[in-house]
Predict the 3D structure of the following.
Amino acid sequence: MSLIALVLLVCAVFLVLAAEWPRLASRVDVEVFERRRRDRRKARFRVIEGMRERPKDPAPAPETDIDDFAASVQRDLEQLPTTDDRDR
């Protein structure tokens, strides 16, 4: 068998697989394999709960996660450096 014939045979097999891939994928159910792989990856994850940061001022502690988030954003905004455009 010559090299050209071998290359043509490989190309023909590739073209048939490419043309029939949608039908083959539905039989093989590729999504099941992806879902299993993802579930195996996610099984290694752990939820780590940190200690809540206590506010520096004597303000009452936020009661919900949304309030906690809002307070955190407010603290971050207050700590940002500001510039005054008139100083330029």
